[in-house]
Amino acid sequence: MELQHIELNDLKTTALNVRKKGAKDIADLVPSIRSLGLLQPLLVRQNCEGFEIIAGQRRFYALQKLSEEQNIEPVPCIIMAKGDDAKAIEASLAENIARLPMDEIDQYKAFASLVKQGQSAEEIATLFGITERLVTQRLAIANLIAPILTDYRKEKIHPSTIRILTMATKRQQKDWLKLFNSDDDRAPEGYQLKAWLFGGANIPTENALFDLADYSGGIVADLFGEEQYFDDIAKFWEVQNTAIAKAKDAYLAQGWQDVIVLDVGDYFPSYEYVDTAKEDGGKVYVHTSNDGEVTFYEGQLPRKESKAKLNVDNGEATTAPKPELTKAMQNYLDLHRHSAVRTELLNHSGIALRLGVAQMIAGSELWTVHADAQKANSDAIGGSLADNKAEESFAEQRKTVQELLGIDGNAEDTLVCKKSDWHRSNDLHAIFAKLINLNDEEVITIQTFVIAETLPSGSAIVEVLGDMLNVDMAQSWKPDQTFFNLLRDKPAINAMLKQVAGKVTADAHISSTAKVQKQIIQDCLNGTRKGKKQDWQPNYMAFPMADYTKRGGIGAMTGWNAVKTNYS
What we know:
The chain has four domains: 2-180, Conserved hypothetical protein from pyrococcus furiosus pfu- 392566-001, ParB domain; 205-313, no CATH class; 332-455, no CATH class; 473-567, no CATH class. It has helices at residues 29-36, 57-66, 86-99, 104-116, 121-128, 132-139, 146-153, 159-165, 170-181, 190-198, 233-253, 303-313, 327-345, 349-362, 379-386, 389-405, 428-436, 440-453, 460-468, 481-486, 490-501, 503-508, 514-526, 555-563; strands at residues 2-6, 11-13, 42-47, 50-55, 75-79, 219-221, 228-230, 259-261, 273-275, 283-288, 294-302. The protein starts with a strand and ends in a 5-residue tail after the last helix. Strand 6 (219-221) and strand 7 form a beta hairpin. The chain is α/β, with parallel strands linked by helices. The strands form three sheets. A five-stranded mixed beta sheet has the order 1-5-3-4-2.
């Protein structure tokens, strides 16, 4: 098993879901997920089309409903591997969730206790079978002052307001609480709270790190209170930044390993850091709110960095260094490079041909091509197909193609993955590299096989190709016992008898049972009885297919009639 976050649109339901009833009864789930987030990941399985949901359909439908009113981030999913027992995994997840306190504050306390024991957010998420994002959301509650937590537990403060307040400084929280408890004033909530916290329109003089005499602008006093504010924001930040720089130099002079000044308004998630002494590599983080308040977090080390340092001290491997490129920069570079490469590819049809064939065989992020599964409804039909000479020839050609591509496998394995496969076993780059070194004739041979293998059974295109290519079924198939066992329509059987044994014999046995008539046909074909056509092929094996009764309802004929005008 592995935990991944998957886009909502890439998830599909499946008939295999362990919940069979009430899957769309989501009235209780929508408000819960809206308030608390998705606690339990979906259980999914990978197939050639993406991911199918094995357990968690109600959560999926609830997320779809919520997507109508808000943006849904990638959904946490546990991906099953071959051999995993879906019900066992779901039961384990349910047991883990049952161990998780349902109150946000209790969840915070439980998580905080584990953090003190040295566990990371990722490890806590794995322990409870929940998402890492949920864990970090709860740990952010550590930033709240006690009175706000008390009012929240008494359900006086909405959860959405709590989440925003976790990003506020202690002073801002106290100021907000004062408004909240006031009979005359109204505390901002929701988007108004965000604007109140992060707007930075009013910067009080108490937030200055510098002597007010160093500020050349004006100061405005509140006529109804004791607060004073800077009237020139630009000048304030000029002097404040100088003061922050001086504070940084002072810390470095004291022997601190590093002083990191965060961008104005950046959130400092204290739960992701470990208290670390100066001599052990502790750093100083400088947090500046939008209204100019500066907080110095002394003796802090990122939890991952602390763990890596501990690993080094214990002689263990360290974690990977921080990537050079941000995700946004990587996206920028990806798009521009992609644009240039695909435009140049237009000038190289041979390479495009080979890449297309490789993607047909192995698939890619955007290609999904399936081999026809040739699904037989019974063992008898499957056995009959195995005796078909055309199948033997096709298997031989598959072996030839596998050898050209250097793919290990037997003649029964499809080259292109079937829809029922959980994952593709072929490697796109290995196949493309092989195709680059083959000549055009060999590549076209492979392409032709791939297209033939992905020809859908029972489709109108089979009828079109059979007619276009003058396919003679007698070259690969003869009426076998399975054919006669499946033959049930009496008028059709009588018409076949007339074709094989002649009108006189057919008329003489018009009232005989279907079993008797089929036996006469077989006797004529195997030579034990004189017949009209020993190399007989039924109308059903002609291209295009023909019937015997004109009653209709034959899929191949319906498909042909619908498309034949395109080929006239």
